[in-house]
Amino acid sequence: MTTPSECSNAAVIPHFISRYGSFAVFTHLHPDGDALGSSYALTVLLRALGKRAETVLLEPPPAKYVFPEFDELYTVLSDAALGQYEAAIAVDCAAVRRLGAAQAVFAERPDLSIDHHVSNDCFAQVNYVEDAPATSQIIFKLFSDYEIPLDTAAQIAIYMGITTDTGNLTYSSTTPEAFRICYELSEMGLNTSAVAEQIHNTRSWAATELIAEFIRSIRLHCDGRFALGFLSLDELKRLGATTADTESLVNYARDVETVQVACFLREIRPECYKVSLRSKGIDVAALAARYGGGGHRRAAGCVMQGRLDSISKELVEAAEELLV
């Protein structure tokens, strides 16, 4: 395994790709727009290079990320004929445990990780980590390096990845290059308005009710600078919502004017919670790292075991230290 300091040489990507003829492309559990976008776009690129490639997901993608152009690019792990793939590539995955049930499959063959999370521990045999707004931005540059034009599926995928991980180009992580890439995609003929409408502006009634449920759960601490909200499994089931519907809920807490750090606790199973952290500048990746997690300075997460009241108390105390 390489060290983080050895993960910044982009030349390892084409070198790895040149060595094998077929690839399974993986991403993390409960994939978001960038996880799916970067994996689909990479699959398109590999096929354009004459390789056999397929994105292998742990579960079907959320409805808002389903476009007909993606139908032939992916399969789910339970249906995958994995024996046909010589090598594996993980995208947008900061730690091997985030591969879930695909961990063993990934490790059984030569593997490469391409990621934009600075907390990535370089878990693969070959690694490339770049502090970019989205992993999809890294894949876009590969198309340019190989001088391969993007088809419609790759255009949608890259746009989906960049805009979801930058809050539709509003987060502070958004770079001039991210804007430029989206402009170029529009110049290529991509109907960015239609894609954005489906990804960012459409949700089910269950997802809408979930927003209200989460907002009612929010409590402010540290003189209003720390917001903490939660949802139980029972609440998701009662409303008929999915885990994908919880993807951006933490932002409703972060957006409160006095809040500097927001936290969303989502029950995964009894006495086990997924912790999502967002901030307006404070390093929440360092806080997540205390509990075995990671991410970016303003967006990070981890998993914590225990009773809800105990975990909440511990996080409030940690926030008090952080916000001194």
Can you describe this structure?
With 324 residues, the protein is an alpha/beta fold. The protein is built from twelve helices and twelve strands. The chain has a six-stranded parallel sheet with strand order 3-2-1-4-5-6. A six-stranded mixed sheet has the order 7-8-9-10-12-11. A hairpin with a 4-residue loop joins strand 7 (219-221) and strand 8 (226-231). The two termini are 37 Å apart. The mean pLDDT is 95.
Give the quaternary arrangement of the chains.
Answer: single chain
Write down the Rg: 19 Å
Number of strand elements: 12
Helix content: 25-40%
Give the overall pLDDT as a whole number: 95
Largest sheet entry? 6 strands, parallel
Order of helices and strands: HEHEEEHEEHHHHHEEHHEEHEEH
Quickly count the helices. Answer: 12
Shape: globular
Low-confidence stretches: none
Structural class: alpha/beta
Could you tell me how far the N terminus lies from the C terminus, measured between alpha carbons in angstroms? 37 Å
Strand-residue fraction?
A: 15-25%
Strand order of the largest sheet: 3-2-1-4-5-6
Provide the fold topology.
Blueprint lengths: L11 H7 L3 E5 L6 H16 L3 E6 L16 E3 L10 E5 L11 H5 L3 E5 L10 E4 L5 H12 L5 H14 L10 H12 L4 H9 L4 H13 L1 E3 L4 E6 L1 H7 L10 H5 L6 E9 L2 E8 L4 H6 L4 E2 L3 E7 L2 H15 L2
Parallel strand pairs: 1-2, 1-4, 2-3, 4-5, 5-6, 8-9
Antiparallel strand pairs: 7-8, 9-10, 10-12, 11-12
Helix pairs in contact: 2-4, 2-5, 4-5, 5-6, 5-7
